[in-house]
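Good morning C.,

I know you're traveling, so I'll keep this short. The sequence:
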Amino acid sequence: MPKSVGSYIFNAVRGGAVGATEALPGISGGTVALIVGLYDKLIGGAGHMVSGIKRYVTDVPRGRGKARAQEQFRQVDWSVLIPALIGMVVCLGLAAVLLAPLVETYVQYAYALFFGLVLACLWIPYSGSGRKWRAWHYLLALVFAVGAFLLTGLPGANLPAHPVVVFFAAAVAICALVLPGLSGSFILLVLGLYEPTIGAVGDMDIAYLSVFALGMITGLALFVKVLQYLLENFHHITLVVLTGLMAGSLRALWPWQTEDRVVLAPTDVPLTVGFAVFGFVVVVAAMVWEHRKKARMEENERPQVPTHV
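The tokens, ready to paste straight into the viewer:
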């Protein structure tokens, strides 16, 4: 069935939300992808793209594998992926120039807002598998939550903006894009490369951005297939781990802390808490809307039983 123009715009807006948050330290693009319902499409589509490209590069020159490569590409929902990727790229650039300085000016309120967003989002992976959690599932989630808590509490380093360092930093940061709870921008901040990267975007430093893009492509190609395999074969356990990572990453969004992750005494509590509550309510409202939308779609797809007079 052909897609409407509205659906393409909607997918671009959803991708834009993911891209914009990737420019902000602390908030995960993967988390936002879960909120807007893009996560499975992005991971699955990226995985099939990587497989198709790999077959074209390795098999087609040898005279085989073309049909299998094309089959991988056919499994990608391009009507969702292309508009979403366009929206991500455009909004990532805009956010780096316009939104990031605003967040840096009002760090406490911005982190409070994102804290509320991520806190509400914990329900998405927690309930996403449709299976009941057992005691050892909670223990596993706790282990990964502690790991994420410790990681996001690390003070920032000051690595040099050398091309090799930038390449590997980008490869690691892009992995955080597909892991809800971990922020690519936060990882760059920990490595001391957040400001150089934001500056390169604003100055259109082609040399820096080219190395960074190459690192992103490499990291995504290596990691997304692993995550796709885990989601397809160990879906419930993977969501348990993702829930733990998201819960532990809330440490990075605690509103009262310094740039070096030192926790401060709470100040301006009413307004700060108000931002957190607002973020929480926005996500809950989005989840309720999505639930009702799915219920209506299932109702419309259900066969109508003819009534006889």
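Safe travels,
E.
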